[in-house]
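Lecture 7 notes: from sequence to structure.
We start with the chain below.
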Amino acid sequence: MSKSERPNQLFRNLNAKVASIPMVLTALVIFVGGSAWTVLYSFTNSKLLPRLNFVGLDQYYRLWSTPRWLVSVENLLVYGVLSLVFSLVIGFMLAALLDQKIRFEDTFRTIFLYPFALSFIVTGLVWQWLLNPEFGIQGVVRGLGWESFNFDPLYNSNIVIYGILIAALWQGTGLIMCLMLAGLRGIDEDIWKAARVDGIPTLKTYLFIIIPMMRPVFITSLVIIAAGIVKVYDLVVAQTSGGPGIASEVPAKYVYDYMFFAQNLGQGFAASTMMLLSVVVVIVPWAYLEFGGKKRG
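Predicted structure tokens for the same chain:
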């Protein structure tokens, strides 16, 4: 490229570049700057107000020696793995069923997607009532004659995280279903015809042909689900407030409590940094799969 052509390249699509300046500044100042500020102050002993009194890794040592944080990380791992697996499996199965051109497809799609329109607080309160042992599912079933029936996950510290998982799946699976359905509708009908002509069973067609072709949809769904997992907070507060005891604590609630109730900003920043690290662990592989593969191609 000659030197005379470079200015022309610079001013090409000038309106679009000018319009993107606020977004770029927002990303740099708020997101990047805020993240760097959080990481910096995680190495201080800030209490009520942030102050640059560095204490090295003391906040992190204290963080990983606190039982409450360890419980919250364990809960997030259990919740995250199960949420990821069940959201993808249930979402794909619902999409595959709707892709069969069933009657009242629009009605079923609306019913499945409707919970996603509700806030997490509303969803948490609804499922808090449904899982109440006196008024919810357990009370209804016992009223029908099954007196020995027990279903009170929110009041059992061993399984309380599964009660939260039920509410999360009820709300979020509909969105994954719509993404999967859009991906299925993008598959050429000739592929299905060729599979039928070759006598390939439907299950194998999905596993070895359709699902590999829907890789971008699965990656997008994976990122959306992972982002929701890391920041889960509303459901826990609405359903259990972290109880019984600390049995349903999650990292986001730990951060909030230490920053606004315990007035220990340094500890809250350290926990926030660990959450940021978990986001990076998700984003980097996604970026590599999305952009690295394209460059190699």
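Points to note: The CA atoms of residues 178 and 241 lie 31 Å apart. The domain at 59-296 is CATH 1.10.3720.10 (MetI-like fold).
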